User: Which sequence fits this backbone?
């Protein structure tokens, strides 16, 4: 995955939500989420002096992920804690 092209795609979809209906854009969002799940991308990462840098485009990808996923009910049985 080319980070710059993924970033450009996410920014483009963020500005035009109608693009969420396009499978190619959905796949790009899912690819970013997969990289995030695998730990290759981070929403925030430490930089010099204990300061954290937030990757806004990855935050946007997370938000865009919700409307392209189908909601489903999951049973967990008796749940105690």
Assistant:
């Amino acid at each position: 995955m080319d980070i710059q092209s993924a970033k450009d795609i996410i920014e483009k979809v963020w500005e035009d939500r109608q693009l969420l209906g396009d499978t190619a854009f959905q796949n790009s969002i899912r690819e970013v989420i997969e990289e995030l799940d695998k730990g290759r991308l981070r929403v925030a990462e430490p930089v010099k002096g204990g300061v954290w840098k937030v990757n806004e485009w990855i935050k946007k990808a997370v938000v865009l992920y919700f409307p392209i996923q189908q909601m489903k009910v999951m049973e967990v049985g008796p749940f105690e804690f």
Observations:
- Residues 5 and 16 are 16 Å apart (CA to CA).
- The chain has a mean pLDDT of 93.
- The first strand starts at residue 44 and ends at 46.
